[in-house]
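Hey,
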Amino acid sequence: MHMNFTKEKVIKGIIFVLRNAVHFISLIVLTSFFNYLLVYYFRFSKIYINNDIPDTGIITLFSSFFSWIWRIIIYQDFGQSLVNSQTVMERLDGNVITSLILVFGAIIVIIFIYLPIAYFSFIKNKLYLKKISKAFIFLSSIPILIMAILIRPVWVKYFGVSNYDDVLSFNQSLSYILPVILISLGDGFGGELLRHLEAVFTSLKKQPHLLAVMARNANYDKHIIRSAAVPVLSFLGSKISNIISSTIIVEFVFFGRGLSLLGVNAINDHDQYLTMAITFILSSFVIIIYLINKIVVGLIDPRLK
């Protein structure tokens, strides 16, 4: 099936993307402002933002907030850490890369391992892959903390790296394999995903239009993948926060570093600027993933044509 990109469709697609982009950018601003508001009025310590007792006027509050956002966008300046002499960017250095590798690694595992296993298990009826799918579902039922503690000795012996200065080195990259797989399993997430894929593929096999495609010996695989894309992507988009939350445990057990773990330490250390920066980055990351997911679903959903 070839898509005809007429001028009208292109314009509608651009409007759709821009409308969702504006919507999600507003969500990022509102989430950041709410976080800023909490720190502004309910401080963790007696150290105030801008090292001064704040004026509670709404104009001053908005001015201070947008000044902070402006420094982030233009100068990549999140401020100075209140715990030591480092800037927030210096404290974030390396931790952001660790978290991104873990999150995107888990997404890659889902796309290139979970989805093919589900497809060949429930569409092609490969019995050995159905057994592998059941094994993943069973492992996913085990709490991620218990699995992490059990696997860590093996990880340290064969993959563990104590020097994290070069997080993209070959040996360091290998050390991410087991943690990434654990995040993809994520306290029931992997099992829930596979059960959802089974339900989607089983339901699609009974759809009249797909049965007609099979009877005509047409490209059945292409049609069923296209039909399954919307519910599968919608499910993955709604669960991205589960992947990010699982990184907290994995970062703590395996690496002792990472954005989520740094955020927990920042709260315990009453470091307001670092807390705001990490909250801003994590919330922006989740919202951007939601945006990409919504745009992709909107562009491939036949009902939007």
